[in-house]
Every structure is written in C-alpha cells, then in structure tokens.
From TrEMBL:
Keywords: Ligase. Coiled coil: none annotated. It comes from Oryzomonas rubra. InterPro entries: ANL_N_sf, CapK_Type1_Caps_Biosynth. This is Phenylacetate--CoA ligase family protein. PANTHER family: CAPSULAR POLYSACCHARIDE BIOSYNTHESIS PROTEIN. GO terms for molecular function: ligase activity.
C-alpha cells in the first residue's frame, strides 16, 4: 500500500467518520476481516444478527407484529436463517401501503428517505438510518477492493446526479474521485471522460454497467489505448457483450456487483470466477425461492428474497426485491472467502435508448426520474424508432395531465430536447416469460446477445 492510500484508509477517512458521526470505516474493517471467516462462523454470526433483527421488528414495528400475528408466527421459533421460511414474504406493495406509519421505527440514529424503482419499475420510499448507511458504504468500498482498487486510489465514477452536497464533496476530495454524470453519454461528453482518465492517469472506473459499455464503445471508436487496472459495475445487467467489449478495450477485468437502492449491498464478484458473486453474509441473508415461496435447489433459478441483518429505521425481512437469481452449488471459491455465492442475477434489465442528438440513455436515467413520481405505479420505455420513445404508464388515481407534461419536460431536459416522447396509458405491464420485468426495451439493435 502506497503512502496516500494508507493515510486515507487509516487516518483521513476515520477522521471524516468522527466529524460526520458515521461508522463507515469501522464497518469496513469488520467486513474486510469477516469475509475470510469460515462458513460455520459466518452462519453463526448471521443467526445472531437475524434473531436481533426479528425481535426488534416484531416489538417496535407495527407492520411486522400485525403480519406475524395474522400469519400465526411465533418469533421464538426463528433462531437461524433456515427458519426464515416460517415467515411470510414481504412485497413492495405491502411496504408502500404501510409507509411510513406502520413500517418504520426510531432507531436512535438520524435517517434519510430514499425513493427507489428497483427492477420492478414500481417506485416506493424507504427510510435508511445513518448506521445502516455506514454498513452499505463500507460494503461499497469492499466490493471495489475486489477489482484491485484501494481506498485512496484515484477513480472515475459515473453517477446519476452531480449535486453532491458538502459531505459527499469532501469524501470525493479525500478519496480522489472524479464524479461524472451517467445522464449524458453523448460522444462529446464521453470524449471528455476519456480525456480526464488520460490527463489524471486514472486506472479505475466505476459505475452503471450501461455507462461503462458506452464509454468502452466510444474509446474503441477513438482509438483510446490506455490500459486500465480495474472496472467496477453496478445497477444494471453486465451483459456478456458488455463485459467482452469493456475488457477488450480497457485491457482489464470487470468486477460486477449486486445491490439495491433500499440500503442493501448484496454481492460482488471476486475476480477469480466470473460466475461467483460472493454474498455479503454478515449484512444480508439471501434466499432463492419458487413462486410459492419455497426454497429452490442450489443452481436453480428463483425469486430473490432479502433480509437485511440490521433492523435500522425500516426493517426489511424476506423482502421480495423483484430480482431473479441462482445460488451456486459450489461450497467454496478458489479465492478463499467463506461467503456463499450467487452464480446468476437476471432481474435487472438494460437497454440503451438512443436520442436524436447522440445521447445514450441507460436504464438508470429513467429510474432516476420515475422513482420520484409516486402517482405512477409502473412504467416501461420502448424504442423502436431512432429519436422516438413510447412511455407506457400504469397510472395511479392521482395522476393527471399536469404530471404528464412535467414528466415529458424532465425527460427532454435531462436527456435530449429533440427526443419525441409518446405517452401510452395501460392497465398493466406484463412480466416477460422469464418472470422478469423489462422496463427499458430497445428494438433498434436486433440480434445482440443479451445473456449473461
């Protein structure tokens, strides 16, 4: 470890935690060590945290007490993660209908409200306290470590807003982050990002998979030949052709990660095996179940259920996130980590919308807008003509023409003023045959392989 990364990890970041009353680096040190524990020790820790979380949820959160009482659940029977099957599954609709009165608690920590669409395209709000956020941020650092990056190494990150706020700006400064927008991915903007990488000798890039793919495509067109050390992707599917292109252009591997906007960091690839996503067991218990809620065998496809092992301000227990995945049948990975593994995540879909003026709108461009429209139940974007999109909307009762105008204006202002937008109101948006919901569908690029 060179001098600045050492100072950043051991002195500057811990000092920043003290100043902001967070515990990110304390959590980071714990997760960094515990990933190497044996499976038995990890399970024991999980069981202990689960017991605490269930008891807090039942005693302090009316939603869970009512749900468990109505289901005839005796929480004294829940002593280990295998007992989670005794509990009912919790859906987004249930949480939305009970938020905030019945599904939040006073955890004693400051909290923030986040709106999220997730892979279902259906927005709702979650409350995340500072302690839970410290855990999530610590795992964001750990997942980046899997690419070879160390705290303090400069990196470029694509994100959804440049309005960072004073705390995030200080963090960016300490960690030497070049934070850039994933909203605008036109050739001119991508050229600026490539020049920034060149000028500042940046070796690592992190961000949405769709934005990394667009950057790689532009780099190839421009003849960019700087060899990178690692890239970290999140947010949407890292398709096979995405990975192939990115790794070919930047001459390094891509570390794909899996998390959700509800304050849960779920898993990340270790770099030793493209099919191994290590589940962050001290933070989350992950189940794969069939449509009836029963566990499937390892290696079989099923619905992802998440239990965050920290009650926080809003407990999430057997939460159906809307994703589809497979658990690995392998007990261990050659990297030596004791963490359980996923082999496939299929519930997040990405297509890139092309605009008349050359911008590329990735899936999170749209979720970053629609998640704040509580009057919209679900949505889907369809592009079958260049310069034009159809926005399918399942409206709620409070949706009106003023909201339609505001939505169109926001998409144009943030994406491309010349983009033609057609609104289509429907009663429902059916799932795909794979039981996934694709909420950005491009029909322009026929024949592209989109399997992981």
């Amino acid at each position: 470890m060179s001098i600045y990364p050492f100072l950043c990890e051991k002195i500057l970041m811990p000092a920043a935690d003290i100043a902001t009353r967070n515990k990110t680096m304390k959590c980071y040190d714990f997760y960094k060590q515990s990933q190497w524990w044996g499976r038995q020790d990890l399970k024991k820790y999980q069981d202990q945290r689960l017991l605490e979380t269930i008891q807090i949820a039942y005693n302090e959160v009316p939603f869970y007490k009512e749900l468990y009482d109505e289901s005839g659940v005796d929480i004294r029977n829940i002593t280990r993660t295998e007992d989670l099957t005794l509990l009912p599954i919790v859906s987004k609709d249930q949480l939305r209908n009970n938020y905030p009165d019945k599904c939040v608690r006073d955890s004693g920590h400051s909290w923030s409200e986040f709106c999220t669409s997730g892979s279902s395209g259906s927005p709702f709000a979650v409350r995340v306290d500072s302690n839970t956020m410290s855990q999530a941020r610590a795992l964001m650092l750990l997942r980046a470590n899997y690419s070879g990056w160390e705290i303090g190494n400069p990196f470029l990150q694509t994100g959804m807003t440049l309005h960072r706020g004073i705390v995030k700006k200080v963090k960016d400064l300490l960690m030497r982050v070049e934070y850039v927008s994933a909203f605008n991915l036109s050739d001119r903007i991508l050229d600026n990002y490539l020049q920034l990488i060149e000028d500042k000798r940046i070796n690592y890039v992190m961000g949405y998979a769709g934005s990394l793919f667009c950057l790689a495509e532009r780099a190839e067109q421009k003849g960019f030949n700087r060899e990178m050390k690692g890239l970290v992707s999140w947010g949407d599917n890292l398709y096979k052709h995405y990975r192939t292109k990115i790794e070919k252009v930047f001459h390094c591997g891509v570390t794909d990660t899996y998390g959700c906007g509800e304050g849960i960091q779920i898993a990340a690839q270790c770099g030793m095996n493209d099919n191994a996503y290590h589940i962050f067991m001290p933070h989350v218990a992950l189940e794969i179940v069939d449509d009836d809620g029963f566990p499937v065998k390892s290696g079989e496809l099923g619905n992802v259920l998440l239990t965050r092992l920290d009650a926080g301000a809003m407990p999430l227990i057997r939460y159906k996130v809307g994703d589809i995945g497979r658990k690995s049948s392998a007990e261990t990975c050659c990297c030596g980590r004791g963490l359980e593994m996923l082999t496939k995540i299929e519930g997040r879909d990405t297509d890139v919308v092309l605009t008349p003026n050359g911008n590329r709108l990735i899936v999170h461009f749209f979720t970053g807008i629609f998640e704040y429209y509580q009057s919209i139940d679900t949505f889907r974007i369809i592009q079958d003509k260049l310069g034009e999109i159809t926005v399918q909307i399942v409206p709620r009762s409070n949706f009106n023409s003023e909201i339609s105008e505001r939505l169109i204006k926001e998409i144009k202002n943030k994406g491309d003023s010349d983009l033609q937008i057609n609104l289509e109101f429907v009663e429902e948006i059916p799932l795909e045959k794979s039981n996934k919901r694709r909420f950005v569908v491009s029909k322009l690029a026929k024949g592209i392989e989109t399997t992981l």
